[in-house]
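Let's inspect one such protein example.
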Amino acid sequence: MSTATSDEKHVNRRSILRSKRGRIILAVIAFIVICAAVIPAVVVTTLRKKNNMGPKSKVFVPLYVYPAPGAWTPLENVISTHPDVNFTVVINPGNGPGPDQLPDANYTREIPNLASYANVRLLGYVHTSYAQRNISLLRRDIATYAAWPTVSSNPHLAVRGIFFDETPQQFSDQALGYLQNLTDLVKGLKGFGPNGFVVHNPGAIPDSRYLSSADSTVVFEGTYGMFQERQRAQLFAGIPNSTRGQLCAVIHSVPESQDGSALRGLVKDARNMADEIFITHLDTDYYANFGGKWTEFVDLMAE
């Protein structure tokens, strides 16, 4: 058996080192190749998950909850924890602003709290009785809302527009002139800020010629069952030349079984159709309370 010389040992060591370095380099290259293939796929998957709810929509809230201490807390909680979600909130002190220059002490305490959030737009409730109510009474209600900041000496005791309930579906020149007159009044009053916002609520698809006289129109107000029957995505096909930015949907009486992925699908469908959405599982007093899945709904709107 022969014995290796010193030079041969050094050569062997260098060969071993080179071999190890080669394996390390190959391992690093393999790792980089794997990362190059996997990371983009992960990023794409993450982005898909993040964006799979469709276009962003505002949370629409018919807040017909009397503001006893703590009664509006469920709303304030989701507003404060979802600063990237915009809320359109309708308040209704007394089937309108009420008979006095200012609402009662509970409203005057709570309205400024809501108005202080940058992601909240407050609207005052006024009904039109399908464009049959005496327009002077509507003008009085609108002027009362607009004067709140001045009368109260509190700039936060304010709304930023009007929600006109019971607007007509069937077209007439008289009704269009009536509604446009009211919109012009809201837009011209400084008490509503620089961009007085107007929402119409016919509760169903109106003649499309009315759309231009409002910033947003509630084209669906009904039960989950009605929403399903009207085939969701085809629901608003009867509004020619409209855009989702003009439309609002209000869905109530959602079955309790519709949660998790089922609720996600419902919210996604509604977001694809309308820029403002309200969804609740309550089937009674659905505008006077917050349902058990209220937070889940807002969480989905935040995605």
About this structure: Residues 232 and 269 are 7 Å apart (CA to CA).
